[in-house]
Amino acid sequence: MKIIMLGAPGAGKGTQAKMIAEKYEIPHISTGDIFRANIKNGTDLGREAKKYMDQGLLVPDELTVKILLDRVAQADCENGYVLDGFPRTIPQAEVLDEALTKLGEKIDYAINVDVPDDHIVTRMSGRRACLKCGATYHMEHIPPKKEGICDNCGSELVLRDDDKPETVQNRLKVYHEQTQPLIDFYTEKGVLKTVDGTLEMQDVFAAITAILG
Ligand code: AP5
Ligand code: MG
Which stretches of 25-145 are DSSP H helices? Predict the structure, then answer.
């Protein structure tokens, strides 16, 4: 099963993608997590990506597409995957579509996690992320067992550099301009499903599993 998560920054794409990956035993692939791991490890890719990410801008398609196509070509993706944060522009969606068509494959579901903008800003300021394993928490809604420490891997949790309110506003603007058109793109392909992302995390997941079966 090949699944794409769509939705504004902070809509809960990563939170839901992790749960989907676990239940359906497919890899969770987040381009944002790949970039953040590269920033943490001080790679050239990380340095380049950080320039854009810190301003809430998208990393150029040339850098992003190659990373994603290499990743989905790996052996663990044979039975499908859940993509979180990719595609984010129409050109990215077209490249993915072409690559899959060549293999005789297609995206099965594009899940749109719908959350209005005013919800987003409050959510982001409470988010804490683990840069090692990609787990995400929320200080009020989804706290870790031990404050500031990742339940999964024991690493320190941080407030992402791009979760400052002014950067969040910019990411929302970029989302509406460049990513929202993907909703029409996947609607036309007949694979778009929208779920209400303002519900409790488990209720959002129940709505998603009702779709995926
Ligand atoms: P990326 O890492 O993909 O960030 P994003 O899309 O901005 O989304 P987030 O990760 O911020 O939010 P999310 O929807 O995953 O929400 P989460 O589950 O954490 O990308 C970062 C940057 O990398 C981009 O800005 C760009 O520069 C670059 N980039 C990445 N991919 C790219 C691409 N393809 N092309 C170009 N550039 C790219 O949830 C948010 C918070 O809410 C958490 O605290 C969570 O615990 C909480 N929460 C989740 N669900 C609920 C709920 N139901 N109720 C209450 N709280 C909840
Ligand atoms: Mg995320």
Answer: 31-40, 44-53, 61-72, 90-102, 117-125
